Amino acid sequence: MNTTLVDSPFRTDVLQGLSASPKYLLSKYFYDARGDELFGQIMRCPEYYLTRAEAEILSLQSGAILERCGGMQGSFDIVELGAGDGSKTVFLLREALRMQGSGRYYPIDISPGIINYLSQTLSTKLPGLEVHGLAGEYFAMLEQMQALTESPKLVLFLGATVGNMLPEEAAEFFQQLKTYLRPGDYLLVGFDLKKNPQTILDAYNDKEGLTKAFNLNLLQRINRELGADFKPGQFEHFPVYDPLSGSCKSYLISRCSQRVIFDDDTVIEFERDEPIYMEVSQKYSKTEIQALALKAGYEPVDAFFDCRHQFTDVLWRV
Ligand code: AVI
Hints:
InterPro entries: EgtD, EgtD_Methyltrsf_superfamily, MeTrfase_dom, MeTrfase_EgtD-like, SAM-dependent_MTases_sf. Its EC number is 2.1.1.44. By secondary structure, the protein is an alpha/beta fold. 39% of the residues lie in helices and 24% in strands. The chain has ten helices and 14 strands.
């Protein structure tokens, strides 16, 4: 055994997931530099309607959304969880600046690169906007931010990121989030809606093979960072969608009986056709979203839809 190896949360989570039965990996680890690049391509591919639908909502209805928050009286404070490249949020920020003239934007993202990019680009793109980026885990960063922000503030959780939790986990997440908010604060959440099952399945099985590459990249990341010897070609990308539960789940299926060896000498055995559960992308009905708001202790204020009713950004008040 190589004794110079240090434990990292990534190593611990990967080995825990691959030693479990059934095997799983955590989808938050998709996003290394190559994963970010592939996700960018997925968002632009014809089958992945989610990004275009939400961009349409924010480009056409940001004024209406902000009106429902009382126009964010005076200057505004907007916090974003999982800000990404901010390309859709710009619509909302531009409209808020048009209404108020000045305000503060607090993007939170796990990636320091994203936070640097947003801090550099947005203040020039949107004069009057102060950008205070925070790189780290959502709740740790919200803790730091509590003393800085003024209420009522608007917290954004866009892009159907909530879908990467199961509904019970989402309810717990929103309950915990509420402990960082004050009465009168608003939350805008992007949900992907239940729809024709084939449309959903196609979004997670694009013809170009980008989603397949996105999943297989996690095996390559494990090879790169944990010295494993996965052969990605020996795994098949297998997404399924259950129209009743609304869960779209992605698996990698081992094409043969095989073993993978890590640099700490850990050996993981795979049977032929054995799955690794990679990700859930949960879809909701309007009723389920309403029930989730109430369960987590928020007051549903309004819901905004794209023209095809594929996606919704819902506004809740604390
Ligand atoms: C980030 N998240 C909302 C995406 C989704 O739709 O679940 C991640 C993704 N996975 C495969 N394609 C996109």
